[in-house]
Amino acid sequence: MTPDAPIGMFDSGFGGLTVARAVIDLLPHENLVYIGDTGRYPYGNKPADEVRRYARELAHSLVEDYGAKMIVVACNTAASVALTDLQAELDVPVVGVVEPGARALVRVTHNNKVGVIGTVGTISSGAYVEAVRATGANVTLTSAACPGFVEFVERDQTTGDEVTVLAERLLAPVRAAGVDSLLLGCTHYPYLAA
Ligand code: DGL
Predict the structure, then answer these.
(1) Which residues line ligand 1 (CB under 6 A)?
(2) Where do runs of H (alpha helix) occur along the chain?
(3) Does one domain contain both 113 and 189?
(4) I need a labelling partner for 134 at 20 to 30 A (CA). Which of 102, 114, 156, 177 fits?
(5) Strands 7-11 and 32-36, bridge-based pairing
(6) Catalytic annotation, residues
(7) Closest ligand 1 atom, residue 15 Cα
(8) What is this structure's pTM?
């Protein structure tokens, strides 16, 4: 493996490009290969076993077909259910987005009430509950699944009444909990926050 081998990244669609942007900004001299699995998106409403299978296929392809020297799982849903398997079966480092997000979340809160939103798959996996617990921080976490957000982003519909009405309904529990810090636990969501 040569140092100029690419970093491999994948997501169900173009949401992971928000992570690619951050990697490019931090490591401008690295080459990247990015796969957006738009043929099988969305992942967030699929059973964990199916998402795990897709994640394994894509990660193996990035290493075996594109010579990736490391993998960034730029999808919270895939990272929530497949990171441990990928780390066990690939010979290159594999990093996800859940643990770094959880660490950042507990660092920025002032009132120790934090929130995370994500796909149904991510939230129901419990990955963020576990990752926040693993930080050891004394915080109360409120989680909310936001079905529909990803579909808006993939349709390039990021503003307007429909988005606002859905967001107000789905974010009501985190608002009611009085969180002062909210983690966008899906790589598509920054497009809605912009
Ligand atoms: N962008 C992905 C995530 O971070 C998945 C969205 C989806 O395909 O439902 O969870």
Answers:
(1) 11-13, 15, 41-44, 75-77, 119, 122, 150, 186-188
(2) 17-26, 48-64, 76-89, 98-108, 120-125, 127-135, 149-154, 161-176, 190-193
(3) yes
(4) 177
(5) parallel
(6) 75, 186
(7) 1
(8) 0.95
Whole-number Å distance between alpha carbons of 127 and 11: 17
Among 95, 127, 151, identify where a domain stops: 95
Residue 118 belongs to a domain with what CATH number?
3.40.50.1860
188 and 167 together in one domain: yes
Ligand 1, residue 74: give the atom nearest the CA: 4
Domain span at residue 13? 7-95
Cα-to-centroid distance, 41 and ligand 1 (Å): 8
Contact 102, 120 (CB under 8 A): no
Give the residue whose CA is nearest to atom 1 of ligand 1: 187
Residue where a domain terminates, one of 95, 118, 137: 95
Summarised one tens digit per residue, pLDDT across range 48-76 is: 999 999 999 999 999 999 999 999 999 99
Q: Which residue owns the Cα nearest ligand 1 atom 8?
A: 42
